[in-house]
Each structure stands twice: as structure tokens, then as C-alpha cells.
Amino acid sequence: MSSDMIMTVRGAVAASAIKPGGILVHQRVLQKETTVVDMDIAAEDLMELREHPAEKGNLVLSNETRAYRELERLSLVQSNCVVDIHGRDERDVVRLKRMSEQLDLHILASTSLDDTTTSTDVSALAHQLVLDLQYGMDNTTIQASVIYQRTSLSPANPTILRAIAQGYVKPPPSVIPKDFIPCSICRLEFEPVVGEYFTKFEFVYCSTKCLRRHRVAGFGPVDQLQ
């Protein structure tokens, strides 16, 4: 994939397709459905959830209709791209793709490693990430766009950290687009490199040859030189 493309759950899209609102990162959009019901929290439970945020299904985000309505609001802030971060055991890339198609929204899915793994095989763990990033996740062709890893920093699992470093593939450097402008005399387009072209009044010259030609003509109307 070229450096000016972004991988989404619907496939690669041009970076220019992303609206000025940018990419909303670190969002939990939708996860696999569980036995815990994703429902509204009662007002009388809010104080308890301040102290125990993981109780009463407060962190469960499996309701597709609710997620759909929240993502609809992105259009109000000129944004059309969001990154979903869920662990390997929580993600639901099939439903993410369906929602992306329904909303015409660019969703970037994440991949990760099991943070409780006891494996010391760095290459095998890195291979899991590579498969998700380059081929597809969870028996689909939906590719991951980013690596999101939950891990304790005290102490961090060195095997997981090395696997992430090995699984990450640095993208090629971006190609800086070149803007070309036409020469007022020869009409040929050229790249305006500072110090290599000339201007006088409203005229632009690609070379000293064109500048000299116009000077000899007394800097008159350029249409008389054609």
C-alpha cells in the first residue's frame, strides 16, 4: 500500500478522502456482543459508577444502534474517520465494516496481542500481528490499521514489546507533491525551486534564456513573443 493510502475496514482509501476534522483516535466504537447487556445507566447508579466504573455493564459497547447514532454525529464536526481500539478477544470487525458501509464512514480497526500470554516466542507473536495487518483478522479479509496493546508498564512484558516492534512495518516515506507553474514566455510548466527561476512584475521565467528574451522585447506583452 502506498504512503498516501490509509487502510480501513472497507479497504485502502486515499488519505485525501479524510475530512478536515481529522482522525479520531483511541475510540471504542463497537465490541462483540456478550451476556452483559449494553443499556442506559440509571441516574441513581452514576455515583456508584464513579467509584466502580467497570460495574453494571458500564464499559460494554456492543449495541450497534447506539454506536451508529453516536458515529452519525461526526458529520457535525467535519470528521469522517475513527479508530476502533478493542483487544483481540473483544473486537468485532464484521459489524464494524457493516457500520462503515452504512454510514459511509472510514473506520480503522486495531490488532493486539493477548496481554496475559506466557509465550516467549517473539517471532510467533509478531507473526500474529503481521497476519492481521497484511491479510485480515478473525477469518476475514478485513485488515487491521494500527496496533493497540494493553499491557502493564510495571513491569511491562518484554516479549510483547519486542513482538510489537518486530510486527510493525515502517511505511515508505511520503512523496512530497510538486507544484508546477507555467513560464510566462515559453509556456512550459516547471517546478519553482527557489533560486532557479526568476520573476519580474507579474511575469515568471523558468530560465535566464526566457528572462533575457523578454528583456530584449522591453518587457512588453508576452503574446507578441509567441
Automatic annotation (TrEMBL):
SUPFAM superfamilies: Metallo-dependent hydrolases (SSF51556). Its cofactor is a divalent metal cation. Gene3D superfamilies: Metal-dependent hydrolases. Residues 178-221 form the Vms1-associating treble clef domain. InterPro entries: Metal_Hydrolase, Phosphotriesterase, VATC. One of its GO terms (molecular function) is zinc ion binding. This is Vms1-associating treble clef domain-containing protein. It comes from Aphanomyces astaci (Crayfish plague agent).
